[in-house]
Amino acid sequence: MCLAIPAQVSEIGEDNLATVDIMGVTRQVSLDLTPAAKVGDYVLVHAGFAIEIVDEQFAQETLDLIRQFPELADIA
After folding, report:
1. pTM
2. How far, in Å, CA of 73 to CA of 43, rounded?
3. Is the C-alpha dihedral spanning 18, 27, 51, 44 positive or negative?
4. Cβ(54)–Cβ(42) under 8 Å?
5. How far apart are CA 66 and CA 72, in angstroms?
6. SS3 label, residue 74
7. Which residues pair with 28 in a beta bridge?
8. Pairing relationship of beta strands 25-30 and 17-22 according to DSSP bridges
9. 8 A C-beta contact, residue 18 and residue 11
10. Tally of CA atoms within 13 A in the half-sphere of 7 that contains its CB
11. Separation between Cα atoms, residue 9 and residue 20, nearest integer Å
12. Parallel, antiparallel, or unpaired for β 5-12 and 25-30?
């Protein structure tokens, strides 16, 4: 099973690379599949790529579900 995790775009750099925040952890991801994403947007991240722009409510609900199972997300 593959999961895409919601992340908030905090900075957009060169070559369609963005810094995103995933539950307090920052990562670099590619915006090649979501070129319309902008700073402040929530995106679903899978395998280093933002694959879809989602609204904040969906992102927060999904993150809340992940937090219910810390052993799955290794956030204990």
Report:
1. 0.86
2. 18
3. negative
4. yes
5. 8
6. coil
7. 19
8. antiparallel
9. yes
10. 29
11. 4
12. unpaired
Question: Nearest CA to 24 among 37, 5, 39, 38?
Answer: 5
Q: Is 72 exposed, middle or buried (0-12, 13-18, 19+ CB in 10 A)?
A: exposed
**75 pLDDT exceeds 60?**
no
Mean pLDDT of 29-39: 98
Reading the block at residue 68, the tokens are: 């219910």
pLDDT of amino acid 73: 58
Cα–Cα distance, 2 to 40 (Å, whole number) = 25
Per-residue pLDDT at 43: 98
43-72 pLDDT, tens digit each = 999 999 999 999 999 999 999 988 888 766
Q: Which of 73, 4, 72, 16 is nearest to 44 (CA)?
A: 4
Distant-in-sequence, close-in-space partners of 16: CB < 8 Å, separation ≥ 6: 30, 31, 32, 35
Q: Which two tokens stand for residue 8?
A: 């908030």
